[in-house]
């Protein structure tokens, strides 16, 4: 049995009752950083065997699978948020499912969902790109493809590259782009900065050094007639329904 357990991205009170139950029930916890996970477990009075899980180390993945094949259960966690969402876990989950093991994914803390909900941007449908490539040309290509769908785009970015990233966005996509920067979500120094790209850049520059976890939400200018096309219905379909 493999539990996929989201853990707090900031405030420890964000953990769910089900997450605590899974951590207590599991025979072991697979984690990114044993020290960080130990702090989390100790806070809630949970004593558990910890194994460091490295998605890029085949021996680590094989060891985790061997544990599960032995009939023991495990809770898969990351340093914060939901495993497998721009975090380790996909390989293990895929292998577990392929071999018929029971896998349960618990809902819980997610920087992506929190950022989408708190941004004020349309979030009924959005595109999450995780961490973008480092190459400028690849970044522009990925964003152009996403913006063509006229959806809010959400990405993770390093605080050390944020200012450069925003400047590049302004150069490539112009002043019509809306950018919201959510920093340190659910933590003491949580901060939201957003508006037209020029205003966002000015605010970020004025704030000085950027620290902490960063989520960037982008919205391209609305295309003329877009809403009418999406909300309209096919005339032939209307006539058919009227005759029913």
What does this structure look like?
There is one protein chain. This protein has 244 residues and is α/β, with parallel strands linked by helices. It has 2 domains: 104 residues, Tetrapyrrole methylase, N-terminal domain (Cobalt-precorrin-4 Transmethylase, domain 1, 3-Layer(aba) Sandwich); 113 residues, 2-Layer Sandwich (Methyltransferase, Cobalt-precorrin-4 Transmethylase, Domain 2). The protein has a 5-stranded parallel β-sheet with strand order 3-2-4-1-5, sandwiched between helices. A hairpin with a 7-residue loop joins β8 and β9. α3 crosses α4 and α7 packs antiparallel against α8. The C terminus is likely disordered.
Question: Which helices and strands, and how do they pair?
Answer:
Elements: E1 2-4, H1 17-25, E2 28-31, H2 34-43, E3 49-52, H3 58-69, E4 74-76, H4 90-98, E5 103-105, H5 111-118, E6 126-131, H6 136-147, E7 152-157, H7 162-173, E8 178-183, E9 191-196, H8 197-207, E10 214-219, H9 226-231, H10 235-243
Parallel strand pairs: 1-4, 1-5, 2-3, 2-4, 6-7
Antiparallel strand pairs: 7-10, 8-9, 8-10
Helix pairs in contact: 3-4, 7-8
Would you state the CATH class of the largest domain?
Alpha Beta
Strand segment count: 10
N-to-C span: 51 Å
Biggest sheet, spatial arrangement of strands: 3-2-4-1-5
Task: List the secondary-structure elements in sequence, H or E.
Answer: EHEHEHEHEHEHEHEEHEHH
The CATH topology of the largest domain corresponds to Methyltransferase, Cobalt-precorrin-4 Transmethylase, Domain 2
**Overall mean pLDDT:** 92
SS class: alpha/beta
Largest sheet: 5 strands, parallel
Number of H- or I-type helical stretches: 10
Measured as a percent range, the helix fraction is 40-55%
The 3D shape can be described as elongated
Quaternary structure state of the chains depicted: single chain
Structural domain count: 2
Rg value: 22 Å
């Amino acid at each position: 049995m493999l539990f996929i357990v989201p853990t707090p991205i900031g405030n420890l009170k964000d953990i769910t009752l089900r997450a605590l139950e899974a951590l207590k029930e599991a025979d072991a916890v697979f984690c990114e950083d044993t020290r960080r996970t130990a702090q989390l477990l100790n806070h809630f009075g949970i004593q558990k065997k910890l194994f460091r899980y490295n998605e890029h180390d085949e021996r680590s993945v094989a060891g985790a699978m061997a544990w599960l094949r032995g009939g023991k259960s495990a809770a898969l966690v990351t340093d914060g948020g939901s495993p497998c969402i721009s975090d380790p876990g996909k390989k293990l989950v895929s292998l577990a499912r392929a071999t018929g093991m029971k896998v349960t994914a618990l809902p819980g803390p997610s920087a992506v969902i929190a950022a989408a909900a708190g941004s004020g941007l349309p979030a009924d449908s959005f595109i999450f790109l995780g961490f973008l490539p480092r190459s400028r040309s690849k970044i522009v290509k990925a964003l152009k493809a996403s913006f063509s769908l006229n959806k809010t785009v959400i990405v993770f970015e390093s605080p050390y590259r944020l200012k450069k990233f925003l400047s590049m966005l302004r150069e490539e996509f112009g002043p019509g782009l809306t950018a919201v920067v959510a920093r340190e979500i659910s933590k003491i120094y949580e901060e939201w900065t957003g508006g037209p790209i020029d205003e966002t850049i000015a605010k970020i520059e004025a704030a000085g050094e950027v620290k902490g976890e960063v989520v960037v939400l982008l919205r391209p200018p609305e295309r003329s007639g877009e809403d009418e096309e999406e909300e309209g219905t096919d005339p032939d379909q209307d006539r058919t329904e009227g005759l029913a």
